[in-house]
Amino acid sequence: MTQRPSWAPDEVDIERPAPARMYDYYLGGSHNFAADRELAEQAMAVWPDSPHIARANRAFLRRAVAFAVEQGVSQFLDLGAGIPTVGNTHEVAARLAPQARTVYVDNDLVAVAHSRSLLDGVANTMVVHADLRDADFVLEQARGLLDFSQPVAVLTFAVLHFVPDEDDPAAVVDAYRRATVPGSLLALTHATDDFQPERLRDMENVYRSASAGLTGRSHAQITALLPGYELVPPGLVCMIHWRPDPDAGPDPLDGDVSRYSAYAAVAVRK
Fold first, then answer.
1. Could you report the per-residue pLDDT of 191-244, keeping only the tens digit for each?
2. Closest-CA residue to 71 (of 243, 236, 226, 249)
């Protein structure tokens, strides 16, 4: 049995890997357990670019949040927010709009515990322990901080591919759409099997041992999650191609979209 770290909540099963903690490991974080590291290493054996993909996902987060603020949206509902790292949603937003409000949601107790520790005393932030599929509960809690009569940016970075088809991800997305007013935004990144389907299947097999399985989807399938939204140009594209930062350095994966195999988009609620 793995020894439980002092920072790990008693309720956490440290023997079962969790995507949030595996993602933390990809990013070089320290809030993960041996089981998370072992499965993450298996994933990286299948897809060695995983750490680069995780960093590209964080870079897209920064661009998407900045875009939202530019559009006058300064309320953020970050679903599947994960374990706190530098450049969190509230930090990016507050640099551009000091009164921005952010609600973080995650079902991983380690992510929730560290988010609450990090945000203790930080104004205009809230952390909710919940599964994003329980939209009624999430929205009830979020209304303690967010004003849903005004536009809200709903963020779903690298999380909808952990909602299996049987749980109807389109209905999950629509529940949050219906709770927001026109002019609200949805930002997402999502793994795809459009480019390397066999390798993506291997990744899905690895994640079967985690607390949530991975489901890669095609461009058409991801687009089908977004009725009632209008895609912001350039649309649903590889994450590195969504309004890239002109000052960013050379792409570590040589701009090869097949090595990322992840789409990104920002959409406006009609």
1. 999 999 999 999 999 999 998 999 999 999 999 999 999 999 999 999 999 999
2. 243
Which tokens is 236 given? 């649903």
The answer to the question of residue 249 being in a domain is no
Contacts of 26 (CB under 8 A, 6+ apart): 40, 44, 50, 51, 53, 54
pTM of this structure: 0.94
What's the half-sphere exposure (Cβ side, CA atoms, 13 Å) at 259? 15
**Residues 75, 146 contacting (CB under 8 angstroms):** yes
Q: Read off the pLDDT of residues 19-64 as tens digits, 9 standing for 90 and up.
A: 999 999 999 988 888 999 999 999 999 999 999 999 999 999 999 9
pLDDT at position 111, please?
87
Q: How many structural domains does the chain have?
A: 1
**Bridge partners, 105 (sequence order):** 79, 128
Is residue 163 one of the residues assigned to a domain? yes
Would you say residue 14 lies in a domain?
no
DSSP state of 3: P
Specify whether the CB–CB gap between 77 and 19 falls below 8 A. Answer: no
Q: How far apart (Å, rounded) are the C-alpha atoms in residues 205 and 10?
A: 29
Which residues have C-beta within 8 Å of that of residue 191, sequence separation ≥ 6?
158, 161, 200, 203, 214, 215, 216, 217, 261, 262
Give the CATH number for residue 183. Answer: 3.40.50.150
